Amino acid sequence: MACIRNTLGLLRTNNSTIVRTITMSAQRRAQEAVEKLKEKNPYFEKYADKIAKLQQTSPDEFLQRVDKVVNPIKEGKSQNRTYSELLHPKPKKEAAAEIPHKKLEDIMKIELLADKSADDIKHIWFEYHKTKDVLAATLTVEQYESLMKRAKEHPIFLLPLPRSEGFEFIMLQFASNTVHFTPLLAYQVHAENAPECLTLVHYTEMRDKGIILMRGEYDSNVLNGQEAQCLANELQMFYCKDDPAKQQLLEKFTKKPDEFKHMELIKEVENIQLV
């Protein structure tokens, strides 16, 4: 019995050593991958803290994801998630998990607008937000209907954001009356858990007065106000206006992802200046 106990104790010790060795090896490889990613992507520093959390909690999973970003082609095959996968996410486990429609009453007193005209409401809306670090805008009902019609057809898309280093791609996704924006790099590393950098909400409570209210909140560690406004402007360009070239890009991204080219997208917005 003593021999068995000693043997079991030795096995436990060896197993513990092996686990620690594997874990340390994964952490070292993950750190090496981070250094490689830092060299290849000029926007790494903006997401370094968020990326580090995943690196610490699950180094093996982190290593697999970063490897796909740093080495998109491996053994002659693409490792990256295709756009088709982005457009067909895993089904929700519960219908109750559906994202709710955000309400205007959650941020301001609707009764203040009840007896106001569309022009009055627009003035109040901008005055209400002018001292806040958020985006504020209004849409006509026609613009909103165009936006939501195309949102149903193209619920996910990429927008190129002009940066001093070039262009950074930001992924957008519609959910109810909200548009969520996430840096593509963050999505590639964190998948569905990627943090948002901008959220635009369209409030329809004043629709009968002919006006839709929009409010945008952004992560100031990732975007400044001008960059957030630039993304909002690009969203309108692709989803609210009838421009054949832009519609073709939406169609390609959604229905023919293999034909979608990043440079064609950049060409469409390269003349946009941050204002």
| Strand segment count | 8
**How can the largest sheet be summarized?**
6 strands, antiparallel
Kindly report how far apart the N and C termini lie.
79 Å
Helix content: 40-55%
Choose one word for the global shape.
Answer: globular
Query: Which structural class is indicated by helix and strand composition?
Result: alpha+beta
Helix-strand sequence: HHHEEHHEHEEEHEEHHH
Total number of helices: 10
Describe the protein in words.
The chain is globular and about 60 Å long. It has helices at 2-40, 48-57, 59-70, 83-87, 118-129, 141-153, 184-190, 225-239, 244-255, 262-269; strands at 73-74, 77-78, 135-139, 156-163, 166-175, 178-183, 198-203, 212-218. It has a six-stranded antiparallel sheet, with helices on both faces. A two-stranded antiparallel ribbon has the order 1-2. Strand 5 (166-175) and strand 6 (178-183) form a beta hairpin. With 275 residues, it is an alpha+beta fold. Helix 1 runs parallel beside helix 3 and helix 3 packs across helix 7 (184-190). The longest helix has 39 residues, at 2-40.
Features:
disordered N terminus; 275 residues; globular; alpha+beta; 6-stranded antiparallel beta sheet; single chain; two-stranded antiparallel sheet; 48% helix
Topology:
Blueprint: H1 2-40, H2 48-57, H3 59-70, E1 73-74, E2 77-78, H4 83-87, H5 118-129, E3 135-139, H6 141-153, E4 156-163, E5 166-175, E6 178-183, H7 184-190, E7 198-203, E8 212-218, H8 225-239, H9 244-255, H10 262-269
Antiparallel strand pairs: 1-2, 3-8, 4-5, 5-6, 6-7, 7-8
Helix pairs in contact: 1-3, 2-3, 3-7
